[in-house]
């Protein structure tokens, strides 16, 4: 009986030892036969989203200050003063403005910067002049004896605004027309008001003089003969830059039949 018990105990011990050996073998082989895996390991979550190793990651963005935009002074070309902000002529130049209404619109929208009646003097740090331009008196390069050109000069600034010359002007002229802050008729009224504050000198060149015509044609017609019989306002051509050579060809094809080559026939009513 004792021998039988010994056999049973021996068999159980051998069986348990075999289990322990197999468990240890499987554990070590699953870790790659390294001792480091015997400790607790973090659980790795697998994902279908690809990742980048640090060497392939893009460099972090750097925020840099943009270089200042080059400013340009207003210039006059053919009587048209150009603001620094480009844009076309608006509808206001073809409308009749009311100076009294323009005074009210100016007081409500423009006087905060340009002062009452456009007297100016308000500071504009960072601009070359150091102040917001006065509009009374206005920049002389804007004034023109031709009302249409004068109105166009003002309209270009009011419609599209302007950036004063200087490294970093605090205030800029807003574009009152681009986003319909002011309607075309309101802009026309403001233009009429500004022109009333800065009337243009009487023009002596809008109608040719008799002496000038005599010098050009050899004849001295009556001044009345030089005025067109059909009334009307100036067209859009006065705001454009003409080409003399192209004009010569157009004149030869359309005008010379009546006015002779090179316009030698004296100007007169027809």
Please, could you describe this protein's structure?
The structure is a single chain. This protein has 270 residues and is mostly helical. It folds into three domains: 1-31; 75-197, Cytochrome Bc1 Complex, Chain D, domain 2, CATH 1.10.760.10; 207-226 and 243-270, no CATH class. The chain has eight helices and two strands, in the order αββααααααα. It has helices at 2-30, 99-109, 111-114, 147-160, 184-197, 210-217, 244-254, 256-259; strands spanning 75-77, 80-82. Strands 1-2 form a two-stranded antiparallel sheet. A hairpin with a 2-residue loop joins strand 1 (75-77) and strand 2 (80-82). Helix 2 (99-109) packs across helix 5 and helix 4 (147-160) packs across helix 5 (184-197).
How do the helices and strands line up, and which of them pair or pack?
Layout: H1 2-30, E1 75-77, E2 80-82, H2 99-109, H3 111-114, H4 147-160, H5 184-197, H6 210-217, H7 244-254, H8 256-259
Antiparallel strand pairs: 1-2
Helix pairs in contact: 2-5, 4-5
What is the CATH superfamily of the largest domain? Answer: Cytochrome c-like domain
Structural class: mainly alpha
The number of strands is 2
Q: Count up the domains.
A: 3
Strand order across the biggest sheet? 1-2
Which percent range fits the helix content?
A: 25-40%
Question: What's the gist of this structure?
Answer:
By secondary structure, the chain is an all-alpha fold.
